[in-house]
Design brief:
Distance between the termini: 25 Å
Strand order of the largest sheet: 2-1-3
Strand content: 15-25%
Number of helices: 3
Shape: globular
Order of helices and strands: EHEHEH
Helix content: 40-55%
Structural class: alpha/beta
Number of strands: 3
Length: 79
């Protein structure tokens, strides 16, 4: 089992994701990128991220709804 912190990165700009990934991996983090915007919450839960960088420019989604869903999901997993 790895002791590296897990970071989830979601941004529609592949260059931004690549830059963040390179910097984080150089710092010893395990990084997962978003591949399916519609499955963002589920992917994050499966990955078990310790931290997430999520763009506020997610295509066809309202950022506030995403944050509420993440909080709801996090609250449910801690009960």
């Amino acid at each position: 089992m790895s002791d590296k912190a897990k970071v989830y990165v979601a941004d529609p700009d592949a260059g931004v994701v690549r830059s963040i990934r390179n910097a984080l991996e150089a710092g010893g983090y395990t990084v997962q990128e978003a591949f399916d915007w519609d499955q963002l919450i589920e992917e994050m839960e499966l990955f078990g991220a310790d931290l997430a960088f999520i763009s506020s420019e997610i295509p066809d989604h309202y950022y506030g709804d995403l944050i509420r869903e993440l909080r709801r999901s996090s609250d449910a997993s801690h009960t």
